[in-house]
Amino acid sequence: MRLITLLCLLFLVPAPALAQSAPFNPAPALVESAPFNPAADYVTAGQDEPGYRAWYAASPWRPTYVRAFHNYLTTYGVGGVAPTWQLLRTATSWRECGAEPFEVPPTSEWGNIVATLRYIGDNIVPRIGPVEPVSVYRNPILNVCAGGAQASTHREMGAVDVVPLRPITREALMVELCAIHAASPGSNTGLGFYKGLRFHIDARKYREWGTAGAHGGYGCAAVLAQGALPFGSGARQAAPAPVGAVPIAEPAPAAADAPDALAPTEQ
Fold first, then answer.
1. Which end of the chain has fewer CB within 10 Å, C or N?
2. What distances in angstroms separate CA 260 from CA 27, 34, 51, 130, 143, one per listed residue?
3. pTM more than 0.85
4. Is the dihedral of CA 114, 117, 123, 126 positive or negative?
5. Per the structure, how many domains does the chain have?
6. pLDDT digits (tens, 9 = 90+) for 162-171
7. Nearest to 200 by CA among 109, 103, 134, 125
8. DSSP assignment of 41-103
């Protein structure tokens, strides 16, 4: 009888403190950050590498022209600055304009890109690392549809819009590129900034646009003295054009293509 009483008491006694502790919570799952890919803001399906391969194979004459263009760049010492296929990208708004995502420019225009690529390879890549071209040649019809200037350097394949491939903030990128640009005032290099990390380089004339300092100054001089104005801050009214700049209205169909509101748009 005593044994039965003891067993009943054991079942009525509260469980040990350890058993009454808070329920086990597994560690939160690790969230992987998205890879750094600024080109994704400007390159859509069809203008990526699979799209290029499809475009390349769609016409029997394209491999011959692409190979000739590649050999031309190699001959003039700029073949390794960026992959040749990326230099055939047209406008970001190619699909909306019913245009081709890639195009081999007329041979008469090939020479215009050499100085631009040489500047990128000699001055920009050593400072910020490799870059990816997102827009280069725009034929006259596409240039009009994309809102380009009538005398845009993209029409003659003299301009390259690129993004950096190493992680960097927009402000740090602007400071680096302004320092590079200011160090070569005797060059014919044009430097322009779009929204995000996209920037423009050409070899037509020494000028810059889309730059502003953190305390209200305009231009690369203000950026180098004050630091760059953070993207998305309040004071973003348009500033007067610097000497040598060519203020040209060049609205783009997509936000990713639109030049920065900090300065007059360029070509």
1. N
2. 43, 25, 28, 23, 19
3. no
4. negative
5. 1
6. 999 999 999 9
7. 134
8. GT--TTSSHHHHHHHHHTSTTHHHHHHHHHHHHHHTT-TTSS-GGGGGB--TTTTTTT--SB-
